[in-house]
Amino acid sequence: MKRKLLIVLFLTALLLTGIIAVQGYWSLNVYKLNKDKFDNDINTAMQHALDSGKNNYFDSVRVVGGKHPGDTGAYIRLGLVSNRQADSARLYKYYRAELDKVHPRSEFILRFSDKPIPATPTIVPKPFSALWRSTNKPMGTVYQANELLYSETDQYSYQYLQHAEKKTMFVRAVFDRAQVGVLKEMILPLLLSGLLIVFTIFCFYYIIRTISRQKKLTELKDDFINNMTHELKTPIATITVAIEGLQKYNALSDPEKTQRYLQTSRNELSRLNDLVSKVLNVAAFENKQIGLNKEKITIDDVVNDLIASETLKTNKKVAISYDNKGNIKFIEADKLHLRNVLTNLIDNAIKYCDEPVDIKINLYQHNNNAVFSVKDNGIGIPPAHIKQVFDKFHRVPTGNVHNVKGTGLGLNYVQYIVKAHGGRVAVKSTKGQGSEFIITIPLKNG
């Protein structure tokens, strides 16, 4: 089973890696296509900006023929006197307006010079050098620096913006953060791709988690069946021996021996009944079929009777003390199930303690709740098992074997009954120093 689980984990990880790789490759290609489109658009915008500047220039320079009243033969020539700084600002305005039509809020700077402006050499990051190939540039074209993150237009020349000078000027638009504009336009496909990857990871995690839980549950059930079989065989074997003693060895003629054999059989039958009841109770409360018969019970009588019964049952040297610190007289609860809860806790304390066993039961009131504390001097619970002790079938092992007999149902039953009463149960334990189980139940369960 473990090997199969490892194979499933390996195949799942391999498949997940493949999906992420395909999504990454797809996203890179989409980015590349959008980046190439961005590079084309910024060149087109520059051409339109220069055309707009040219048209505006010719519209603003007119020769207007007209005569003022009383002034014959007078001509007025209207013109714009320009300089490089004004032309630069005007071209920036035109380019900004054209660029906002296709890529709003893209950040750029314009480089002006009266000499040709060389393109920045290509620097493609090594991890992407084999993947990145521009699809819209012919062979021999000079590429821009770091094609993934950087863009610049081709070099453009103009003369018509200069009135005073007829010298040719050159301009390039540079985008140091071209990826910001491109990624903004890709936000929807990238978001969908990311959500798909996250959803896929979650699905695989859920599948692996379910398989692991099923594996653990199978192991716990197998362990439960083994323990339960042993637990059932022990009282059956004891009763069989007692009956054989009565039949074959003339024990019936000895009243004392007969009584002892009958008492032994009665005790084992009671034990057998308890085991069957535990299993039936688990099935019942798993299907929400356990009903509580709440009544007003005298708690001191219940606890003292329980202590006397538990002391007689065990062969160990046991000291059980009880202190009702809150002077609580009555509790509204199901008497049978509350007694079973305390019985389970005391049984566990006795089973997991070396002699002499010292168990302290304290009862006190907190707000409107009765709080039971059952503390022992046993072997304690390892920290790794603290959160699992209330799980069904779970038992704290010692190495690969269970030194103490049990079914792994007792504490699960305790938790269910306490919660059914509207209470809660907690445990404190230090390995080698003992454990303390704390049960909180409302004083009135109306």
Keywords:
Helix Hairpins, alpha+beta, 4-stranded antiparallel beta sheet, 17% strand, 3 domains, 5-stranded mixed beta sheet, 9 helices, Heat Shock Protein 90, elongated, 446 residues, 13 strands
Summarize the structure.
With 446 residues, the chain is an alpha+beta fold. The chain contains 9 helices and 13 strands. Helix 1 (2-60) packs across helix 4, helix 6 crosses helix 9 (410-420) and helix 8 (335-351) packs antiparallel against helix 9.
Q: Would you write up a description of this structure?
A:
The protein has 446 residues and is an alpha+beta fold. The protein has 3 domains: 2-63 and 78-185, no CATH class; 220-286, Helix Hairpins (Orthogonal Bundle), CATH 1.10.287.130; 294-442, Histidine kinase-like ATPase, C-terminal domain (Heat Shock Protein 90), CATH 3.30.565. Helix content is 51%, strand content 17%. The chain has helices spanning 2-60, 84-102, 126-129, 178-185, 187-248, 255-286, 299-313, 335-351, 410-420, and strands at residues 62-65, 75-78, 109-113, 151-152, 156-158, 169-175, 294-298, 318-324, 330-334, 357-366, 369-375, 424-430, 434-442. Strand 10 and strand 11 (369-375) form a beta hairpin. It is elongated and about 135 Å long. Mean pLDDT is 77; it is low at 62-82 and 125-145.
Summarize the topology.
Layout: H1 2-60, E1 62-65, E2 75-78, H2 84-102, E3 109-113, H3 126-129, E4 151-152, E5 156-158, E6 169-175, H4 178-185, H5 187-248, H6 255-286, E7 294-298, H7 299-313, E8 318-324, E9 330-334, H8 335-351, E10 357-366, E11 369-375, H9 410-420, E12 424-430, E13 434-442
Parallel strand pairs: 8-10
Antiparallel strand pairs: 1-2, 3-6, 4-6, 5-6, 7-9, 10-11, 11-13, 12-13
Helix pairs in contact: 1-2, 1-4, 1-5, 5-6, 6-9, 7-8, 8-9
